[in-house]
Design brief:
It is a single chain. This protein has 427 residues and is an alpha/beta fold. It is built from 14 helices and 24 strands. The strands form six sheets. It has a four-stranded mixed sheet with strand order 22-23-1-24. Strands 2-15-17-16 form a four-stranded mixed sheet, covered by helices on one side. A four-stranded mixed sheet has the order 4-5-3-14, covered by helices on one side. Strand 8 and strand 9 (150-154) form a beta hairpin. The relative contact order is 0.16. The protein binds uridine-diphosphate-N-acetylglucosamine. Uridine-diphosphate-N-acetylglucosamine binds at residues 23, 26, 100, 126, 128-133, 169, 171-174, 195, 311-313, 335-336.
Length: 427
Amino acid sequence: MDRIIIRGGKPLSGKLPVSGAKNAALTLLPCALLTDEPVTLRNLPRLADVDSFGHLLNQLGVSTMIEGARPEDFGRVMTLRAGRVTSTVAPYDIVRKMRASILVLGPLLARAGEATVSLPGGCAIGNRPIDLHLKALEAFGAIIEITAGYVKASAPDGGLPGGNYSFPVVSVGATENALMAAVLANGISRLENAAREPEIVDLCRLLVAMGAEIEGIGTDTLIVHGKPRLHGATYAVMPDRIEAGSYACAAAITGGDLELVGASAEDMHAILAGLREAGVHIEEKRGSIRVAADGRLKPLTLSTAPFPAFPTDMQAQFMAMLTLADGASVLTETIFENRYMHVPELARMGADITVNGRTAVVRGVAGLTGAPVMATDLRASMSLVLAGLAAQGETQVNRVYHLDRGYERLEEKLQAVGADIERASDG
Ligand code: UD1
């Protein structure tokens, strides 16, 4: 199994390219199921999760073709075509490995009138039910049955009528599934308290490019006028705000100076505000963001919440950064109940963190020391990489497959800005 080995203590500097957003890619890919015409996605990140999603779509009858990908390029272009949907089943084996597979439910139901998708079950960061996905689809007229670990959704003869649904809790995935189902419904659908993450805006933009009619894009009330059919489109995936935020933390924790090329400040207000409050210098440029730090960091009080507030996907990376702040920070996780799995590993590197329920108190220490560590999820793994970049001595981050799910060529990007980091393989 691969490991990442880091010899820390070097300030990072230079230009670092930001890839296409993983979470946007995972909701744009299933849109190919909504039309028999080709959908071309540009700036798709080269990530294990994107490959897995492509394989799932292949099993449903979608052809995928990758164009002109040279090994040295970041990102790639993929053309997907669902001339005919040949299967409406997303099996346990795939959904278990990648929760985002649930995002084929809405589009399959809309296009083929039925979908059978394995229930994803819990995951390392919490229980993560899909009840809201199902309730929204039911409100649009779907018939939902749960048997033998699978959700079977079907539309009445003649297709989904469409309808209204108000989410009791903001859910990114449920909003995405509902939107992808509503665009082909017979009537008008209205979603209230919808998620308004930038990835949802990206999804709406692709759907509109495919001929969908959606009002309220970027707000928490979305009105979808269903269309009998959608057509193909070419669309570029938005930049990854979480990848950009993670590398901003790398500049901050090493006292470095990075230009994040392609990052969009518009999508990152809460992240950039947090960095500024911690004393990090942020310069918003055209097409990039410069992040510079002098090695001194101020403590923060932060709470995760749906967009536009501070994202749960940045909590672990900020925590790593704040282990070296001058004072005590208080972080509260309100989205997922079990998202502090990185705390004991950071503690093994010398961090001083106390968790009480959903709140973590991080008391800044003078320095971290390298250690062998491992994490149970993607962002937690990144927090250990960040700690390793600042620590004295050698850090080995195990279970690299988590990082490969969400960071395109992590070690290459970090090496290019001066990090002493490499991948080692046991096999
Ligand atoms: C997405 C992102 C993930 C991010 C999260 C929150 C993708 C592929 N993943 O996950 O990186 O951390 O948004 O920004 O885009 N909930 C329910 N019932 C449901 C659905 C959700 O109770 O049917 C709860 C969840 O347990 C959680 C909260 O709602 O507490 C928010 O989850 P949600 O926004 O749905 O997260 P995902 O879409 O799974």
